[in-house]
Design a protein that fits this description.
By secondary structure, the protein is α/β, with parallel strands linked by helices. Helices cover 34% and strands 23% of the residues. The longest helix is centred in the C-terminal third of the chain and has 20 residues. Bound molecules: NADPH dihydro-nicotinamide-adenine-dinucleotide phosphate (NDP).
Amino acid sequence: GGKKGSLGIALVGLGSYSTYQLAPALQETVNCHLAGIVTGTKEKEKIWAEKYGIPEKNIYNYDNFDTIRDNQDIDIVYVVLPNSMHAEFSIRAARAGKHVICEKPMALSVEECDAIIKACTDAGVKLAVGYRLHSEPYTQEVKRFVKEKTFGEVLYVSAEAAYRSVGNPDQWRLNRELSGGGALMNMGVYSIQSAIYSTGQNPVAVTAQEFSTRPDYFRDTDETITAQFQFPGGAVGNIFTSHNANANSLYASCTRGWFSLKPANNYGPLAGESANGILTFPHQSQQKLQMDDFASHILYRTENRAPGEMGKRDLIIVEAIYRSIAEGNKSIS
Ligand code: NDP
């Protein structure tokens, strides 16, 4: 049931992120609430309807999804599907006149990102990428350091976002057709994001390397990638992403000090330090903050913290990294 001034969200794809993060967070949000579900798994309909009091008229599958157009309870469609389905469902949601949150990575290619952005522009609906960290206080403090030049100019940044994957080798994340790529598409976007908000600039050049140590497990997708960025102001940066090793941090060295977050990109609480001391902020669900921020953007015209252009920018960098790897690197001997 919708409270006054609270927008209805429909989650599309009831996998682990929807089940364990987004739906619980939507019990705490104030500007939006869980109003509907879209699922391809019949058994989930009843489980979710009972657990969250979702009326039958707000339950859709992937075939009848477009009729969501006629449903006044749904204001926002949140696409939480495997990456290869992001563009299709974001575009269908926009054409149904609904605002869109699309999970990261925004799509498989820059071309798909453009198509999503165009569909949302044409339909006059708002679009955000599920970059929860932009609503998170430690990340916002880093962005403030950069904006206010608290420690002077950023000269060097290092960012890691990686975990060791040991689960089912047939999972969609390791299937290129469904994921569009391995570690880089999954965790790599966080390290790209960190490098950019820690410098306040988009990189202008990149070199990159790919490493594989478990080819039997990673048959189809990249296992480990390192990349080096050059920023227009002269700063340089390194990123590391992997499905083979755990890593989760950012560090920036500046003309008059430094700052770091560790961890930098999990569900929190994050932790951080700077040349001025330890950072401390109260913890709240990042997903709650993120969805409330987007609903506030729609309701009250506050900032869209993670617009579609940001997701597209990151895919431009992802494509440049894959191109650099394909061009090859010189061996030492
Ligand atoms: P899961 O595999 O847990 O869930 C995906 C769901 O998509 C499935 O449960 C299913 O839902 C639906 N689906 C439809 N077609 C397929 C298919 N061919 N193969 C697999 N699933 C299918 O994935 P996650 O929930 O972990 O991730 C979903 C998206 O969210 C990804 O884009 C991921 O990158 C992003 N994500 C973002 C996070 C963040 O912190 N921002 C964290 C985790 C994920 P149903 O049964 O309802 O049809």
